[in-house]
Amino acid sequence: QKEVEQNSGPLSVPEGAIASLNCTYSDRGSQSFFWYRQYSGKSPELIMSIYSNGDKEDGRFTAQLNKASQYVSLLIRDSQPSDSATYLCAVKTSYDKVIFGPGTSLSVIP
Amino acid sequence: GAVVSQHPSRVICKSGTSVKIECRSLDFQATTMFWYRQFPKKSLMLMATSNEGSKATYEQGVEKDKFLINHASLTLSTLTVTSAHPEDSSFYICSAAGGSRDTQYFGPGTRLTVL
Fold first, then answer.
1. Is B104 close to A102, i.e. CB distance below 8 A?
2. Any idea what the Cα angle at residue B55 is, between residues A51 and B81, rounded to 5°?
3. In b/e form, how buried is each residue of B71-97, taking b as 16+ CB within 10 angstroms?
4. What is the residue-level pLDDT of chain B in tens, covering all 115 positions?
5. Contact check, Cβ <8 Å, A98/B106
């Protein structure tokens, strides 16, 4: 089992819809979780971080964390074509290493 | 805040030469810096982790004598690709982290092409 897994893409959603990106991790002791966005040919940029169970909202983005299920998700409301990118989930493990998932490619169709 | 710069953004060099890439945290002190490489349409691959003032920790399979990392201060880390070959052509990205949460902030990346 890989340490951080993300739902395979590419994920296509129509403009204005909700995009749901999922991530699971294997280390139960993980405490810090991050979502990054990476446009093609560019480096990743931090969208948000989450540390406690529940939801965390920032504008159109909502991160959801469920440590019991070892699951973290990112919801993008009112998806825009400019949201088309690869989304990376990152998890800081109990042994102090940040592991990145393989990424999910999102395409928002106008 | 949390700005990381990287220089150069793009470099083309001949096979056998060495290339140095600089990574700077501009508005925070980075206790840890990371170096990644990424091939087209592939995942980030962590190459090494460096802490200020100490030797870098390299990931399995990464040649430390080929990829020299120096983290001389809390705001600067360098990666030197020695005796570069065409297979070293890639997108090299640094990130910097400071504080207990260890959020990583990425530099804009350096695209290396070895002819």
1. no
2. 100
3. beebbbbbbebeebeeebbbbbbbbbb
4. 689 999 999 999 999 999 999 999 998 888 899 999 999 888 899 999 998 888 899 999 999 999 999 988 889 999 999 999 999 999 999 999 986 667 899 999 999 999 9
5. no
Distance (Å, rounded) from C-alpha B115 to C-alpha B113? 6
Q: How many CB pairs under 8 A join A and B?
A: 41
| Residue among B43, B46, B103 whose CB faces A34 most closely | B103
Q: Is any Cβ of chain A less than 8 angstroms from the Cβ of B102?
A: yes
- B-chain CB neighbours of A102 within 8 Å are 43
Contact indicator for B96, B103 with CB cutoff of 8 Å? no
Residues 6+ apart with CB under 8 A from B2: A46, B27, B28, B103, B105
Question: Would you state the structure tokens that stand for residue A57, as one six-digit string?
Answer: 């909202």
